[in-house]
Amino acid sequence: MAKYECSQHMHDFLHELPKCEHHVHLEGTLGPDLLFPLAKRNNITLPDNFPKTPEALQIRYDQFADLEDFLGFYYIGMGVLITEEDFFELAWMYFNKAKKDGLHHAEVFFDPQGHLERGIDMDVVVGGFNRACEKAEAELGITTKLIMCLLRHLPVNNCMDTIELAKPHFAKGTIHGLGLDSSEKPFPPHLFIECYAKVAEHFPNVGLTAHAGEEGGPDFIINSLDKLNVTRIDHGVNSYKDDALLARLAENQTLLSLCPLSNVKLQVVKDVSELPIQKWLDANVPFSINSDDPAYFGGYILDNYIVVHTRFGFDLKTWVKIAKNGVHGSWITDARKKEILDAIDAVYLKYQPLLE
After folding, report:
1. Distance between CA 1 and CA 214 in Å, rounded?
2. What is the count of structural domains for the chain?
3. Which residues make up the annotated site Important for catalytic activity (predicted)?
């Protein structure tokens, strides 16, 4: 349902435009091309009804009915990750792909409970992911932050135990943020007040965010802000239904981490054109564009930028505003923000004669 052409010059501009990603699950970057080799390497037997080839699995990924359908496959895929090297290899593959898409900064999620319940040690998971983060900074020039997500479908005491295990990593700064993901509607934000309060009390410098307003209504977003004290909202699509909430998000410049292709794949909207992107721009609500679980949803960050352009046809200045909002909403130093902002300006000046 493309409404606008993405010309070669515009494609090149979007490709080169410096990007910050705030909403990508490292386990969600596990594509069929890596899943099957890891299963074989680690002697993991996949379920009998699981597709037998990478090609067949990719076809199934194109047919998710909703969030729950996707999560079933997501947790099976997670099960092939066993060693620190597995976690490193997965994240390093993501950083390399994202670098080619123009990524300058990444704040990446991981789900430790999905590994802990399989008997994988927290240090193995964090060790592998952190090695990839450090290598990405050293060799690719991508600054990174690791965000630990709690699985909201698991008991709160399990979440509290996970926070306890993560304390040394919060203290060292290896884990920089706390998030909340998995099934949204049955598990509202107020269930996790104690979890967020514990992290905020012991580690006040840790960034707080939560998935809200993907399937849940505006109240899930409001309660995440009020009860969990988050400074960012992941997804936040349904914020458009509440004008007072939009005004609040704009006033506080609370970043929404939008995932366009994910929203279509999981039936949140039928097409990217239905997303409230223009409404957010008009209301001065900041948002970034992200890939969520790119191996499952058919696109990394550049693919998401391009599909938004084909639906909204934004001019260069609007794209610069979107990219800069992503920088301002990142958990990085002012000096690093200036570096990326300057790089955005340079790309704009390069393409301005070609596209304006």
Report:
1. 22
2. 1
3. 235
Residue 67: the pLDDT is: 85
Give kind and range of the element (H or E) at residue 116: helix 113-116
What does the pLDDT average to over 231-258? Answer: 99
Instruction: Taking residues 282-296, report their average pLDDT.
Output: 98
Q: Which entry of 214, 215, 274, 356 is annotated as an active-site residue?
A: 214
CA dihedral 1, 234, 231, 185 (to 10 degrees): 120
What is the band of 322 on the pLDDT scale with cuts at 50, 70, 90? very high
Q: Which two tokens stand for residue 124?
A: 């193995």
- Domain of 95 in residue numbering reads as 8-355
Known binding-site positions: 23, 25, 211, 292-293
Verify whether residue 137 is a known catalytic residue: no
Domain with 300 in it: what CATH number?
Answer: 3.20.20.140
Annotated binding site for Zn(2+): 23, 25, 211, 292
- pTM reported for the whole predicted model: 0.96
- Looking at residue 334, its amino acid is D
In the annotated binding site for substrate, the residues are: 293
